[in-house]
Amino acid sequence: MRAVLHIISDQQRHALALEDALLESAQGGADFLQIRQKKAPAAETHDLVRSLQARLAERAAKARILINDRVDIALATDAAGVHLAAKSLPIEAAVTLRARCTWQGLIGCSVHALDEALAAQAQGVDYVTYGHVFSTQSHPGIAPRGVTELAEIVERLRIPVIAIGGITAETVDAVLQTGCSGIAVIGAILERRDPRAATAELIERMERCAVRPRAAFSRRIDTRGSKDGKDV
Ligand SMILES: Cc1ncc(COP(=O)(O)OP(=O)(O)O)c(N)n1
Ligand SMILES: Cc1nc(C(=O)O)sc1CCOP(=O)(O)O
Ligand SMILES: [Mg+2]
């Protein structure tokens, strides 16, 4: 089991057209495309997800889609999961909602400290992203947290920890040495002219790492969000 690769969308940070860049990264082997369209109208994000799902299926690309923030869009598109950011619906509310419906996708969230990570785990998330590990254009002026704190969080949690923030092909080995379950990136893939090749190179480096993830994703990863796992 190798660590997973999440590609996160950003409306400002992409060299190719965003949808094309995401598809290229999926064809390069990305495991998750996390659709993070801050401030985009729901209809626009919904249409982007639907279009990506259709184009991924045409290409037989296996990447799963996670929706940032919008639980409603995750349900409506039967996405593989929802990622809760700092100002999203509280974890407890998202977990309760999932218990009441047929959608059974992943629920993940962003954390930035050990106590937040432990609280998120106790509230029932399936994974956390922890960052930012290195300096990142997305959060300028906030000090990076580094791999030592990442290693402590990985050690203390039983659920998968995905490292995020400034991770590149050059630094991925040091990140994976912590035993984290994956990495999430924007710039290392979406700001490249050839996201497919950049993804393939990053995955090759991930596969070469001798340290394996301490925690595996739950079985929810194997299906689309709905209980029967059928494709839409
Ligand atoms: C200290 C700190 N606070 C917030 C963030 C970013 O928050 P997040 O919920 O992950 O939202 P986006 O990253 O999607 O903007 C941070 N990195 N550090
Ligand atoms: C979206 C995001 N969230 C972070 C967090 O720490 O929560 S860091 C980050 C930016 C990731 O982009 P890049 O790989 O280009 O640094
Ligand atoms: Mg974040």
Automatic annotation (TrEMBL):
EC number: 2.5.1.3
Pfam families according to UniProt: TMP-TENI (PF02581)
Molecular function terms from GO: magnesium ion binding; thiamine-phosphate diphosphorylase activity
GO biological process: thiamine biosynthetic process; thiamine diphosphate biosynthetic process
Functional pathway: Cofactor biosynthesis; thiamine diphosphate biosynthesis; thiamine phosphate from 4-amino-2-methyl-5-diphosphomethylpyrimidine and 4-methyl-5-(2-phosphoethyl)-thiazole: step 1/1
The protein's enzyme class: transferase
Binding site for Mg(2+): D69
Keywords from the named record: Magnesium, Metal-binding, Thiamine biosynthesis, Transferase
Cofactor(s) of this protein: Mg(2+)
Function: Condenses 4-methyl-5-(beta-hydroxyethyl)thiazole monophosphate (THZ-P) and 2-methyl-4-amino-5-hydroxymethyl pyrimidine pyrophosphate (HMP-PP) to form thiamine monophosphate (TMP).
Family stated for the protein in its record: Belongs to the thiamine-phosphate synthase family.
Protein name per its UniProtKB record: Thiamine-phosphate synthase
Species of the source: Ferroacidibacillus organovorans
Encoding gene (name): thiE
